[in-house]
Amino acid sequence: MIGHATGRLVVPGAGVIGLAVARAAAQDGWRVTLVDPAPASGASWVAGGMLAPVTEAWPGEEDLLALGLDSVARWPLFAAAVSADAGFDAGLHPEGTVVAATGSGDRAELHALADHLDSLGRPVQRLTGRELRRLEPAIGPDVRGGISVPGDPSVDNRRLLAALRAACDRAGVAVDTRAVAAVVDDGTAVTGVRLGDGGEIRADAVVVAAGAHSPELHPALAGLVRPVKGEILRLAHRPGALPPPERTVRALVDGRPVYAVPRAVPGHGDLVVGATTAENGFDTTVTVGGVRDLLRDAERVLPGIAEYALVEAVAGLRPGSRDNLPLIGRIGPEGLVAATGHGRNGMLLVPVTAAAVVAALRGDAVPDAARPADPRRVEPAAVERS
Amino acid sequence: MIGHATGRLVVPGAGVIGLAVARAAAQDGWRVTLVDPAPASGASWVAGGMLAPVTEAWPGEEDLLALGLDSVARWPLFAAAVSADAGFDAGLHPEGTVVAATGSGDRAELHALADHLDSLGRPVQRLTGRELRRLEPAIGPDVRGGISVPGDPSVDNRRLLAALRAACDRAGVAVDTRAVAAVVDDGTAVTGVRLGDGGEIRADAVVVAAGAHSPELHPALAGLVRPVKGEILRLAHRPGALPPPERTVRALVDGRPVYAVPRAVPGHGDLVVGATTAENGFDTTVTVGGVRDLLRDAERVLPGIAEYALVEAVAGLRPGSRDNLPLIGRIGPEGLVAATGHGRNGMLLVPVTAAAVVAALRGDAVPDAARPADPRRVEPAAVERS
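ok -> C-alpha cells follow
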C-alpha cells in the first residue's frame, strides 16, 4: 500500500537506519512498529561514527561519494531536529578529519587520494607532519605528512541511538522486541511480518533495515548483503595522559587503515579506535590479532594513548553490498522497501536514507543522489526461501 | 583468645587466602565469619594461577623458595581435600612449566636462573628451541631455548575460588558482605571488627586476609603491604587455531617477563596471559600500553594466539610486602593474625598459609618454612590509626 502515508508500517531492525526511518515515517503519518529483539545494538552500537564522504572516497565510487556528500549536507539539520525531538543533543561533533601517513608507501597512497579529490573539485589541504601536529598535538613523530578534510565530521553513535530512540517514542513509534523470521507477502504485496515465536504483525508496508541479516527476511533480498566484521576499541583518557585529538584522525600505517574518533561526551570512552575488516560470516569474536593491530597502528599515530584505559573491545557486522552502494528503495512485492547494505557508511547515510525511504513509501521520487542506490539495480541470488 | 580453637573468628577478606584460612579454622573448631563486600573477587579472581616456587626463585630469596617448595608439596593433598569438600574438582592442573627465551640477553638471564637452580640442587632440564617445541608445539620459532620445570604446576584460580566457597559453606563458615572498617582491640586483645556501616562483629580472634587493603585495618599492619597492580588477559581458543600449550609457558621477551597459563576447564577462557607490574596505588585500570605489551610478548612466544578470542582484560592488586615474603602469623594485640603480603605467590602459598594460621590460632608452632614469614620481623610504619 505504498503511496498512502497513513497505513501500518513495520520496520524490522532498530539500528540507526531503522530508528531514523521509523521516526521519519511516523512523522509522515505512518503507524510504525519497530521490531528488534535488541534495539540500538549490533553494528550501530559498535560503529566509530565517522561521517566521512570525502575521506572514504575511492576512485570508481563516485556515486557513493555523491550520496555521501548529499547526506553529510543533511546532517546538521537532521541532528538538530533529532536533538529537538529527544530533548538532548544527538551527538554530532562538527570537527573534521585529518588523514595521516607514516611510511613512504602510505604517503604515496595519500597523495593519490588527494589528487583524486582535487580532480573531483573537492578542497584538500596537504600538510607536513609538523603542520599536522600543530593542528593535533596528539599526533606523534612517526607521522610524516597528511591532509586535512574539515568537511568530514563525526557523531557519537551511542548518543545518536539514544536520541533516535527518544525521538521515536515522541513520534509514537511502537517497539516490539520479538525476532522477525520473515517478511510475508501474498504474491503481489506484503501483508506483514512473521515472528520467530510464530506470531505475525500485519502491515501495509515493510522497510527491511536489518543490516547484515536483511537477506534472511525476504527472497528478493537474497545474497544482496553480506556481513563484514569490524572490531573496534574504546579508550578512555586518564589524568596525566596527553589529551585526545579534537578531530577524527585517520591514518595509513604500513598500508593498514586505522582511525581514532574522539567522543566529546564522556561516559562511553573518550576515543574510538577502529576498525578491522574480516569476512567470516556472522562471527563477532574479538580476536587477539585484531586488537594487536589496532593498538599497534593507533599508537604509531597517537603515541600518548599508551596511558589511556582500554575500556571496551567489541566487534560488529557491517552490512556489505556487492558494489559498496547501499540498497535504499522499493524491491520485490508491493510495499517492500529496503534500507540496508550501508557497509562502512551507515552513520553517514542516515539522513539521506530516511528521506529516500519516506519518499519511496509515499510513491514519490527519491533524492537524485539516492537513485544509484535503487535496490533493483542488482539481481537477488537464486536462493530458495527457507 | 588464641589457643582456644572453639572461639569466634572473623576473617576480613574472602579472597583465596581468607577462604582457605576460614575453611581450615572452621574445620579446626572455630566459629568463623568471613567478611567481604565482594567475596572471591580482587587479586584472587584476576590471578594467573601459577604454582611456581622454582620458576619464581630469585637469588637472595631462598626463604621464599623454601616456603614455596613447602607449599607446592602440600598442593595435591590440599586440592584433593577441597575438591572432596566441594563435591567438584578444585582446578589443580598438574602439568608443569617451561620457560622460554627469545633474544640473547633473555637466554643469558635464563642460563643464570638455571645455574642458580642447579646450585640449590633443584633439577632443571635445559632445552633447545626445537626441544621446547617438541614439548609444546604452540611455541614459535622466535624462541631459541629454555628450561623445563615439571614441578611448577598451576591452578584454575576461579575454579579454586568456587571450590573454596563451597567448602566453606560445608564447614559452616558464615559470610557477611559488609565492608570491614577496622579491627578493634581493647589495648591488649582484639575484640572484633568495626564495619563500614557502623556495626560491629565481636570476635576472639581476627585473621586479616584483606590483601593490599590489609594495612588499613589495624595500625600494627600499617605500611607493611602495598598494592602492586597486574593486568592479565584471558584468551579463548577458536576452531581452526593452534591448540593452547599443555604446560604453563613463561618467557623472557627482550627482558620482559610474560606467561601463559592454560585452563583445562573451559568457560573462563582457555589461556591466561599475564602479567604487567605497576605501582600506582589502588588503580585497577587496564591500560592500552599494558594490553599492547602482553599481546606483543605473548605472540612472540605463542604466535598461534593471534587467532584466539580476547575475552577479558582485567587488573588486580597484588599485596606486595617489603621483602617479598608474606606476612603470616601473630602480630600486634592478642588475637590478631596476619595472612597477607603474598605478592605474586598467593595461589602457591595457600596451603602453607592456611596451615600456619591454624597453628598460630592454636598457639602451636608454625611450619618451619613459614617461620621467616613471621610478621613481627618488620616494624609497622609510624602511621596513626585513622
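The first helix of chain A runs from residue 16 to 27.
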